[in-house]
Amino acid sequence: MTARFDVRVQDREIHCTITVDAALSAPVFCFSLMAPGEVISGGKPGAALGGHLEVALPDLAPGRPHEVVVAYRRKRYPPINRAWLPLGPYLRHAGGIVTLPSAETGVRTGEAPAPRAAGADTLLLCPPPTAQVLTGGVVEAGRGFACDHEAFETVSGIRVRARTRDVPFLTPDGLPVTIARDGALPPEGYFLVIAEDGIRLSAPDRAGVLYGAVTLRHLQITHGAKLPAARIADAPRFGWRGQQLDCARNFHTVETILEMLDLMALLKLNRFHWHFADDEAFRLEVESYPAFWQKTAFRGEGEMFPGFRGGG
Questions:
Q1: CATH number of 3-99
Q2: Which residues have CB under 8 Å from 93's CB, separation 6+?
Q3: Per-domain residue ranges for the chain?
Q4: How much is the mean pLDDT over the chain?
Q5: Model confidence, pTM
Q6: Rounded CA gap, 75 and 209, in Å?
Q7: Which superfamily does 131-234 belong to?
């Protein structure tokens, strides 16, 4: 069985239209909102916990749309964007579960511009370095860089989404990289010279070498194979540069977490705040309390807790 699920917002009301392709007797419409909600029309309120709602529907006939209107209980919580629409919707009936298509989420940005490499008249780096000087000309880096420092090996493992056709980072016949230790530079800082005859990188510690390598990788992503010749001096403004990921309220796969860690490394962040436990779920397998995570690791139909924020 398949079903269609359409959602639209009218003032503070959320209009949900459900269309099934086979008859359903006494189904229950289950979904989650960002905060407690209420049923305006289209069904009878059932079990509710937090933002999770269950609505008892009349029998559904195939091909005949049925509208359910809900709203946030507090009037100061209007559905201001699509993130506030129903999450994880499904129908429960005597024969099992019918998963409804998720409402459209995210930001509508229109057509993405065609990827193109930045020119030699600027340095596209994020975050921008402390100081930079373009020395004129272009450095060919299509074969990548040649360096045996383990920090460069680490950076070569960062998965990236390049703006242009990606080029290799480390190759034996790449542009040679010379590394020197300079204790006068600030912790985690580096001084980078990009020239036609090679790369010269000075740093006081391993972190500085790593971030200098990240800068080279970043320039490959934004400029392609041709890098602007430049001198770059950089050091972190903040020692703690973190990113939080809330896996308690919103389930994320291991692959998603690994991709985010790679993106953090590319942006020179150095602290990962992993919010893996809250009242909605506990995501870690703790050997000393097996029943704890076994009962609360997931939310949704058949679990201890219903599908807050879409389940998972």
A1: 2.60.40
A2: 24, 25, 26, 27, 28
A3: 3-99, 131-234, 242-297
A4: 90
A5: 0.77
A6: 53
A7: Chitobiase/beta-hexosaminidase domain 2-like (3.30.379.10)
